[in-house]
Write a structure and sequence with these properties.
By secondary structure, the chain is α/β, with parallel strands linked by helices. Helix content is 37%, strand content 25%. The chain has a single domain, classed as Rossmann fold, CATH 3.40.50.170. The protein contains six helices and nine strands; from the N terminus they run E-H-E-H-E-H-E-H-E-H-E-E-H-E-E. A seven-stranded mixed beta sheet has the order 3-2-1-4-5-6-7, with helices on one face. It has a two-stranded antiparallel sheet with strand order 8-9. A hairpin with a 2-residue loop joins strand 8 and strand 9. The radius of gyration is 16 Å and the shape is globular. The structure holds 5-O-phosphono-beta-D-ribofuranosylamine. 5-O-phosphono-beta-D-ribofuranosylamine binds next to helix 1 and helix 6.
Length: 207
Amino acid sequence: MLRILVCVSGGGTNLQAIMDAIDSGVITNTEIAAVVCNNAGAYALERAKNKGIPALCISPKNYPDRAAFNEAFLEEVNKINPDLIVLAGFLVAIPPAMIDAYENRVINIHPSLIPSFCGVGFYGLRVHEQALARGVKVTGATVHFVDNGMDTGPILMQKAVNVEPGDTPKQLQQRVMEEAEWKILPAAIDLIANGRVKVEDGKAMII
Ligand code: GRF
């Protein structure tokens, strides 16, 4: 049984997709051990509570400096001792010590086809604003392993989504979530839960 920790900051629609996929059997051999959130007002916490999933709220704002937060965050995560850490709309940088301790065991969902529209400053609606500004006809989402860079780790899954004429950033974000994020994140977790993924020479492969 793969024990996962899901890290969230906002609405938690990706968390909900994971919970629904476990309930429906799309994700097998997996349980959500806990949810971590950096925003006490996030609706994602409501979703966890409704499901009876333990949730921890921890934020850099409550620590004297980032080093103190990083230490406390890693300590709390180690207490949960997950097999896999899933960043689902999580907007806090993962401490380098956590990346090292959970090497190739942290995945992230990014709302674009990496390497497009990613890196520093590219998160949430801004990703879709930039895609529309560039005039791309196809965008999508990416599940990747997290390394010490920003959206630079080995890519595991991607799914393309059409940009429709007249799309607003909000409309495009919703389509990317519905058609891509909420499908490939559960699929990636199920593959990992069933030993179907390996990372070699910086590349992630489905076996
Ligand atoms: C989504 O666009 C997701 O791709 C990004 O954060 C946004 C909110 O996700 N990582 P959620 O609704 O909190 O899962």
